[in-house]
Amino acid sequence: MTIKKKLILSFTFLLLLLAGLGITSIISLKTVDNTSTVIDSEIIPQINRVQTLNFEVARIRSHEFQHIILTDAASMDDLEKRINDLQSSIETLIKEYQEYDNNEYIKIIDTNWSIYMTEHKKIIQASRQMDTQGALTLVKGDSKVAYDKITNAITVLVDASKSDSAAVSAKGDSTYSSVRNIIVLIIIIGIITGTILELYIIHSITTPIRKMKLRLLDLVQKGGDLTHKIDIKSKDEIGELAAAVNQFIANIRTIIIEVNQCTEGVENAVLSVVDYMKDLSSNVEQSSATIQELSAGMEETAAAAEEVNSSSVEIENATVSMADRAQKGAISANEISNRADELMQSAINSQKVSKKVYENTKTNLETALEKSKAIEKISVLSDTILGISTQTNLLALNAAIEAARAGEAGKGFAVVADEIRNLAESSKNTVSEIQKVTAEVLTSVNDLSSSSRTIMEFFDTTVLKDYDEMVNTGEAYGNDGKFVDDLVNDFSSTAEELTATIEGIMKAMSEVATTVNEGAMGTQEIAEKISEIVTMVEQVKNETDISLKNSKLLKKAVNKFTV
């Protein structure tokens, strides 16, 4: 039997046991529930009805005595109403109980209740008539007999209901005890059976595993003897596992045989590769030496081409600089020629303007000098005013004398005469100052006239001649600038042609240098690649040695297995 079937069987048994336990518990709980339902829906309501019936019968009896005592008609009416309500309630309780259990005691209660109600009517009637003694006699007669029978029957019914309740409760307890015993029995059976199944399954699993473990340890201790097999005759998964391990060992044995055969072939191939790599390394080293010599020659050629190119660049720079300077010289010569023309034209214009200014200034100066002679008239007029002020002063003096002679009448005239005298004195002083200033102005005008004539003579004899010489010099300077401009332009054209020729030489040398550099770089790359090939050949040789060593180690390891 397989482990799977064993486990399925064990768990199926346990599940069935649990299902039986559950079903038994459900049935028992249903029985207990039914018992509780009977107690709750039948017994307890009946007990309540009997107790209510007993209570209400006692109340009616009490109301009868109370009615006998009353004398008020209204109170009697109210009490009778309550008695009627109790009567209806009691009759309803009797009918409900008869529907549940119409036994002899409920029949006794029903019969005596009719008798009691007949006597009750008589008692109420006697009480209404205020026949208290007659009413009490009736209460103690047949009414009391019927009432006693009713209460006795009610007591019997109460005891019977309690007995029924106790019987139902005892039945529930009995059911609980039976179910408890069944559940305990099922649990004990489950524990015992589960333990037995557990031990059986553990033994059926661990024994083959332990046996297979011992076989594998034995295989390991024998140093890799792949000819032995694990002999386990179990028909479960452990047996299948042992068969799979045996198949695995057989596959490993086949692989080891193939690896052993391939290792010998790999070893022979590695030895051949080692010989080929030695020859390849020698040839590559010779090629590397030749390429390095060729690279060195190409580098020298490239260096020479670079030197020629550098010299050509310097010559080109010098030629370009010379052409630039010639061009700048041509521009400067042209500017000099233009400035000479401008200077000559400016000199001519200045000469014309100067002559015009000279003529105008001379005319204006002569006119001003003629007008300055009017200052002499100011001097004459000043003398005249000075004479007038002297005469006015004398007249003021005479007037003052006459005013003094006139006394008080001439005081006002004396004041006027005094003011006139002061004015005459002030005018005299002012005219004296004017004469001084006029004399100074006249002297300055004479000096200015003399200086102006000197300047006009200098301008006429010297400045105008200098302007003529400046015009002649500007004309000659312009002719020289044109000559220098033509000379520099010719020199610039020659320098540009030389620059173009040098650029062609430089371009050719640059192409030669580029070609040589590319050849040198290509040769250098070839040398580097060959160097890398040498390195890789050495690495391949090392890896081949490692492969040979690993092949020997693999062969040694494979030989440990017995196949």
Automatic annotation (TrEMBL):
Q: Per the UniProt entry, what species is this protein from, by scientific name?
A: [Clostridium] fimetarium
Q: Name one Pfam family in it.
A: HAMP
Q: Name the keywords, alphabetized.
A: Coiled coil, Membrane, Transducer, Transmembrane, Transmembrane helix
Give the GO terms filed under biological process for this record. Answer: chemotaxis; signal transduction
- List where the protein spans the membrane: 182-202
**Which superkingdom is the protein from?**
Bacteria
GO molecular function list: transmembrane signaling receptor activity
Q: Which SUPFAM superfamilies does the record cross-reference, listed alphabetically?
A: Methyl-accepting chemotaxis protein (MCP) signaling domain (SSF58104)
- Where is the Methyl-accepting transducer domain positioned along the sequence? 262-534
Note the coiled coil stretches, chain numbering: 76-103
Ranges for the HAMP domain?
A: 203-257
User: What Gene3D superfamilies has UniProt attached to this entry?
Assistant: 6.10.340.10, Methyl-accepting chemotaxis protein (1.10.287.950)
Protein name (record)? Methyl-accepting chemotaxis protein
GO CC, alphabetical:
membrane
List the top taxonomic levels of the source: Bacteria, Bacillati, Bacillota, Clostridia, Lachnospirales
Q: Which family does it belong to?
A: Belongs to the methyl-accepting chemotaxis (MCP) protein family.
Q: Which InterPro entries match?
A: Chemotax_Me-accpt_rcpt, HAMP_dom, HlyB_4HB_MCP, MCPsignal_dom
PANTHER family per the UniProt record, alphabetical? LYSOZYME-LIKE PROTEIN-RELATED (PTHR32089:SF112), METHYL-ACCEPTING CHEMOTAXIS PROTEIN MCPB (PTHR32089)
